[in-house]
Write a structure and sequence with these properties.
The chain is α/β, with parallel strands linked by helices. The chain contains 19 helices and 15 strands. Helix 2 (about 20-30) links the parallel strand 1 and strand 2. The chain has a 15-stranded parallel sheet with strand order 1-2-3-4-5-6-7-8-9-10-11-12-13-14-15, with helices on both faces. Helix 2 runs parallel beside helix 3. It has four domains: about 1-140 and about 150-165, Leucine-rich repeat, LRR (right-handed beta-alpha superhelix), CATH 3.80.10; about 165-295, Alpha-Beta Horseshoe (Leucine-rich repeat, LRR (right-handed beta-alpha superhelix)); about 300-380, Ribonuclease Inhibitor (Leucine-rich repeat, LRR (right-handed beta-alpha superhelix), Alpha-Beta Horseshoe), CATH 3.80.10.10; about 380-460, no CATH class. It starts with a helix and ends with a helix. Pfam families: LRR_6 (PF13516). It comes from Linum tenue. This is F-box protein At1g47056-like. One of its GO terms (biological process) is SCF-dependent proteasomal ubiquitin-dependent protein catabolic process.
Length: about 450
């Protein structure tokens, strides 16, 4: 009884035969509030009967995660929603139920705060798609995350109807998103965080978002139709901006002009990540002079960042604590500049900068004994690759903490599962890790992932 009452979190291998074990399992663990149901890709998952049976035994459930539970239909989700009305967080990926099942959750779970949906295959294509609205969760929803949805626009009514929404994350969802973004400011006034990655969104969408005056965090990742014009409008209106991530995808549509606007109008900027963007000394100097709270800076894949730009950063960025440089035209001269600049600098990470030698890095380390210097000329880093497999696709999570070299060969522990852990999870993680190593962007995700967790106090 003590074990059952003390265990509130449960993760189960959700293959079809779990149905037979549900009564005994949830008689033993009768106080579960957080449940994860994960099935192997090639296995038959639990269906509606098992999900309904679980919901009858877990009426106090507040969090549910579904992964590859392809046998669950709209009917199963409807039954679950009616029995678990206290649900606060739902995350589902690679499932086959559709809009009816999603609407059932929203119409019954009035306390729902977070919704994350990835590869939901049951949504009808085209104009026949049933719209998904906020239902009873209109006032409670604070975070919506949509990933890899073919017909994600059917979530439009949900987004614009969630009047207290604070965080919106859209990753690799097809369709024209400018139309949805245009309506958001009139209905949702408190947006604080927006992530847009690999979307069809242009300056028209950014123009609409520029009226979200509470915006503090903005990620624009591989949105080539967004230009200096749109970024300037956002900067001029969203003066509370603290974190800005831009992956320009080498399109050269965002550069000095947009960054100078950010520097002039966003004095609270603490974190700036530029990938595939070509800033020059002009914009970097303006940023350093005007954004005096800038603590974390990442410059990756830039054709214009060299020793002169690093010297400018060293001389001007007095508050800078963490610096990441990857695939830039920086040499040992840039490292020498860092030896005497940035008085608050605690960590520097350099990768794939061919001009920076081991001697240069060692000299910098010796010159500033308290400075952590991590040089990687391009060798494989396992931790970085694992971090790059984050749900947002690389740089969606922010945080800089330079992982020690000694830990690079250590595999992270695998959490056991009560009803038999899935071996494919470990294999999948390993495969994704190797895949991440090939894309060359792992270091950025690893470097940025821990900024938020490691510096939560300074960012608030």
């Amino acid at each position: 009884m003590i074990e059952g009452q003390s265990r509130h979190r449960l993760s189960l291998n959700a293959q079809g035969d779990l149905l037979l074990r549900v009564p005994k399992l949830f008689t033993r663990f009768d106080s579960v509030t957080k449940l994860a149901l994960k099935c192997e890709r090639r296995s038959t998952s639990i269906g509606d009967e098992a999900l309904e049976m679980i919901s009858l035994r877990c009426r106090n459930l507040t969090r549910l995660k579904l992964r590859s539970c392809r046998e669950i239909t709209d009917a199963g989700m409807e039954a679950f929603a009616k029995n678990c009305r206290s649900l606060k967080k739902l995350s589902c990926g690679s499932c086959n139920f559709g809009a009816k099942g999603m609407n059932a959750i929203l119409n019954n779970c009035a306390s729902l705060e977070e919704l994350s949906v990835k590869r939901l295959r049951g949504i009808t294509d085209g104009a026949a798609a049933e719209p998904i609205g906020p239902g009873l969760a209109a006032s409670s929803l604070k975070t919506i995350c949509l990933k890899e949805l073919y017909n994600g626009q059917c979530f439009g009514p949900l987004i614009i109807g969630s009047k207290n929404l604070r965080t919106l994350k859209l990753f690799r969802c097809s369709g024209d998103w400018d139309k949805v973004l245009r309506v958001i400011p009139d209905r949702v006034s408190g947006l604080v965080e927006i992530h847009l990655e690999r979307l069809q969104v242009s300056d028209a969408g950014l123009t609409a978002l520029s009226t979200c005056l509470s915006l503090e965090i903005l990620h624009l990742v591989k949105t080539p139709e967004c230009t200096n014009f749109g970024l300037t409008l956002v900067a001029e209106q969203c003066k509370l901006l603290r974190k800005l991530h831009i992956d320009g995808w080498k399109a050269n549509h965002i550069g000095d002009d947009g960054l100078i606007a950010v520097a002039k109008h966003c004095p609270n900027l603490q974190e700036l990540v530029l990938i595939g963007v070509n800033p020059t000394k002009i914009s970097l100097e303006t940023l350093a002079s005007n954004c005096q709270n800038l603590e974390r800076l990442a410059l990756c894949g830039s054709d214009t960042v060299g020793d002169a730009e690093i010297s400018c950063i060293a001389a001007k960025c007095m508050a800078l604590k963490k610096l990441c440089i990857k695939s830039c035209l920086v040499s040992d001269e840039g490292m020498k500049a860092l030896a005497t600049g940035c008085p608050n600098l605690v960590k520097v990470k350099v990768k794939k900068c061919r001009g920076v030698t081991c001697d240069g890095a060692e000299w910098l380390r010796a010159s500033r004994g308290s400075l952590a210097v991590n040089l990687d000329s391009g060798e494989v880093e396992l931790q970085d690759a694992n971090a790059s497999d984050g749900g947002g696709g690389g740089v969606q999570d922010n945080g800089v903490e330079f992982a020690p070299q000694a830990g690079l060969n250590q595999m992270p522990p695998v959490a056991p599962s009560i009803a038999g852990g899935s071996r494919s999870t470990a294999r999948s993680t390993s495969f994704k890790a190797r895949l991440g190593l090939l894309n060359g962007r792992g270091i950025v995700a690893c470097t940025l992932r821990r900024w938020s967790s490691g510096n939560g106090g300074s960012q608030s």
